């Protein structure tokens, strides 16, 4: 079990993974010559993408407010000071990461990038392995039974 005061990760993986997903999607779009462009070329796709992004950013603000109320860090590579289980964290242990996935999906729709949309599940896998699982170990070490009880009553995703 890691030290309760050690940060869950050395690198801020979420923004790195988001950027890599979008850049890889754009590179694959270009390399394919637009072969899959029809997947995101439907009426309203850019509007839908914009709405998804706006909702995800609103959720991020709500999450940031919850962290601020509890005086703990929102940075994924810093140690938590307090366990946050209210606000959007009542329904998901990882609402910020859900927002990250939604933003990338929304960007793919907004800019008409089919590979960005198709790579979105891979982003979820990367976030789980590089951010969520280390954070869970950190929170279990730091908050013990309180965190385990929270895990038992609240889903990891949705």
Folded structure, characterized:
The protein is 64% helix and 0% strand. The protein is built from 4 helices and no strands. The two termini are 27 Å apart.
Q: Could you give the topology of this structure?
A:
Elements: H1 13-31, H2 45-69, H3 95-111, H4 114-153
Helix pairs in contact: 1-3, 1-4, 2-3, 3-4
Short descriptors:
elongated, single chain, 158 residues, mainly alpha
Q: Helicity range of the residues? A: 55-70%
User: How much β-strand is present in the residues?
Assistant: under 5%
Number of helices: 4
Chain-averaged pLDDT? 95
- The total beta strand count reads 0
Span of the ends, CA to CA: 27 Å
Biggest sheet, in brief?
none
What is the helix/strand order?
A: HHHH
Mind telling me the C-alpha Rg?
Answer: 17 Å
Shape: elongated
Question: What does this entry show, briefly?
Answer:
The protein has helices at residues 13-31, 45-69, 95-111, 114-153.
């Amino acid at each position: 079990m890691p030290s309760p005061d050690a940060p869950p990760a050395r690198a801020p993986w979420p923004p790195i993974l988001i950027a890599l997903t979008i850049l890889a999607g754009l590179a694959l779009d270009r390399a394919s010559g637009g072969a899959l462009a029809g997947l995101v070329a439907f009426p309203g796709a850019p509007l839908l993408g914009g709405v998804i992004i706006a909702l995800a950013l609103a959720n991020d603000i709500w999450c940031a407010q919850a962290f601020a109320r509890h005086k703990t860090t929102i940075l994924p590579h810093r140690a938590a000071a307090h366990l946050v289980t209210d606000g959007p964290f009542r329904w998901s242990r990882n609402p910020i990461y859900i927002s990250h996935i939604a933003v990338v999906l929304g960007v793919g729709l907004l800019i008409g990038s089919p590979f960005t949309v198709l790579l979105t599940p891979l982003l979820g896998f990367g976030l789980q392995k590089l951010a969520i699982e280390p954070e869970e170990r950190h929170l279990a070490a730091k908050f013990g039974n309180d965190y385990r009880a929270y895990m038992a009553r609240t889903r990891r995703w949705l």
